[in-house]
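Today's session is about reading a structure prediction critically. Students often jump straight to the picture, but the first step is always the sequence itself: look for stretches that repeat, for charged clusters, for runs of hydrophobic residues. Only then move on to the predicted structure, which in these notes is written as discrete structure tokens rather than atom positions. Here is the chain we will use throughout the hour.
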Amino acid sequence: MDSQTVTTYFASPERASQESLQEQQHLISQQELVKKFLNSVPDIIAVLNENRQIVYANQALTTMLGLNDTTEVCGLRVGEAVDCIHAFELEGGCGTTEFCRVCGAMRAILAGQKGQSDVQECRIQRRDGSALDLRVWASPLTLENENLTILSMVDISYEKRRHALERIFFHDVLNTAAALRGLSELMKDTSLEEMEGALVTITNLSDQLIDEIRAQRELVAAENHELIPHPMKVNSLDLCLRTIKFYRNHSYAAGRIIQIDPDTANIDFNSDRILLNRVLGNLIKNALEASIPNQIIHFGCKSENGRLIFWVQNSSYMPREVQLQIFQRSFSTKGSGRGLGTYSIKLLTEHYLKGEVSFTSSEENGTTFYVSYPLDLTKLTESYD
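Below is the predicted structure for this chain, in token form.
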């Protein structure tokens, strides 16, 4: 492969010759003590050459990949070995796409090649629909004047889920519960005339509290592959109107306006109403959080090519670096541990509702998210991953 003619948006596409790879593999194979140590470690470890290609993989990596021999991954780059969806988008392979610019594993590897030790977190979306949440360490390694990088990876999926529960679920539930407590204290001195308005607010806050608990329960079930969709008859216009009614009273909507498109489709279709509510609710909440007071969030639905497409538009623009990471579980524009909205939208839509998620974002037109669904989910529910 002539690296000068191969497109890359980040790292070099150049690869070592087969002869060089064999020499590098032979060099590692002679280090019996090093091999014994690396294979005794339960963490995933790989040794990379200057072209980011694997020249040695320990038993933990080959076991994870279901391989019989460590040599089966030699010559591949890490993303190619673990089947990252972006590793096969361009001829140059892992490291050459625009998405690789924001990959934690890629950043750690490049730091290691520069002689620095580095640790990063990354989420790798695989072509079979599964994902890996990893903490990655990279350190330089020199053997007989050969510059190599040693890479170690640990699965932190459970840690990520636990932190999400602690920082998001407890954060939101406690905030809502605190508001309820505050209102109940105020009602001690509330006149009968003022009581009705306070009761409406308490009802809205109680609905939000229940909604947050259900949202986390559904997300945990979805990630554990325990979520089972229950298709039923749903009307697109009714679904949109109910969603807007609920979120107009949400705390995120303060000072913001939600408008429904007058041409919103009025079509009966077959899907899971609860999961659709969750997806559309997250789209609305994200748009509200991205907006400033007095801005308008537009919401609608259209029928196209035998599918229903729901869309939510706000005036804010997402920088390209944000766009590249928007659906990752480990990424948030709202601070550490915040922001599972777009991640859960993609998870529920693509894995349980058999739909598709996309978005556009520009400084002129703001940001619009689209979710499209089949008209009959029942026909597509024979198996769920």
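Discussion point for the tutorial: The first helix runs from residue 18 to 29.
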